[in-house]
Amino acid sequence: MGSGSKINLKLILFFILSLASLLIFYFVENKEIFINFFFLPTLLAGYAYDARGGVITALASITFVTIIAFMSFDNYMAFIINKVLLLRGFLIVSGYIIGRLTEQISATYLGTISTLALAMESRDPYTYGHSSRVSEVAVRISKKLGLHKGEQDTIRTAGLLHDIGKFGVREDILRKKGPLTSEEYDHIRQHPLIGASILSPVKMLKDIIPYIYYHHEHINGKGYLHKRGSEIPLGARILAVADAYEAMTADRPYRKALPREEILKIFTEQSDKQFDGKVVKALMEITDDLRLNIQAIKKNDVRNLMAI
């Protein structure tokens, strides 16, 4: 899971329903009975996408009905006036309402997740807003890699929650200004596992758990769990680069933010070693825009997060 070629089941189901509605309408003798079947792809599109997707699908469904009516009925104009015009209104309104409800649910969900991430980060003022910035970088990389919108949204949520496991890390370790001891380092290395455990009961978040669990893995197998290459989900590889980039651009108790040239040098040297080379390449191509976006988000994390 987590690749650009990941199957979009909602899109496939939408096309299956559309095709099925056409076949039923065309081959069933009493075609008028099945006109209501065209509500299904419209409602599904409103749920799977947004209000715009629901309305567009409604218009497409109306077009299908009109074409088939023209092909099937002698008095097709009467059918269109008596049936299709009424259907059109119901379909458009239904698609829009379902889409708007989906948008509102998604916005509420993302807002809740954002608040949870910020609450976790409030334990350490130096990393406050870190997750929202990682989320921003990860989504920009995902877009550059051509991942579909659904996968971008999954990575956005994973970015917001990638450090949720630090709820289980001692506060004195999180705030420590000096180097960590081996015992402290072993303790903080548990946060991906803790994060996955915290989120595992929430079915809605099941797709992001592998990204959070593996976001500290290295391509060469020298990460926390010694996974390597394609064993690491693409979403986790993207988060690893975004997480490292944001950490390098931010001040920490033990150092100031690194200069841009040094950051690019580190990523170049670690490409296909610690980091996925194609993800690093995508970061390099968008890094100028990212500097501006990251600075803007740092000024107001909550407001800018909801606008990403």
Please, could you describe this protein's structure?
- The protein is an all-alpha fold and 308 residues long.
- It has two domains: 9-102, no CATH class; 122-307, Hypothetical protein af1432 (Orthogonal Bundle).
- 67% of the residues lie in helices and 0% in strands.
- It has helices at 9-27, 39-48, 51-72, 76-121, 130-144, 149-161, 171-174, 182-188, 191-199, 209-213, 234-249, 260-270, 277-299, 301-307.
- The protein is elongated.
- Residues 1-7 and 294-308 have low confidence and may be disordered.
Query: Helical amount among residues, as a percent range?
Result: 55-70%
* The number of domains: 2
What is the H/E string? HHHHHHHHHHHHHH
Q: In CATH, what is the homologous superfamily of the largest domain?
A: Hypothetical protein af1432
The CATH topology of the largest domain turns out to be Hypothetical protein af1432
Structural class: mainly alpha
Please summarize the sheet with the most strands. none
Principal-axes shape call? elongated
* Through-space gap between termini: 24 Å
Number of separate strands: 0
Query: How many helices?
Result: 14
Q: Summarize this, please?
A:
The chain has helices at residues 9-27, 39-48, 51-72, 76-121, 130-144, 149-161, 171-174, 182-188, 191-199, 209-213, 234-249, 260-270, 277-299, 301-307.
List the helices and strands and how they pair.
Blueprint: H1 9-27, H2 39-48, H3 51-72, H4 76-121, H5 130-144, H6 149-161, H7 171-174, H8 182-188, H9 191-199, H10 209-213, H11 234-249, H12 260-270, H13 277-299, H14 301-307
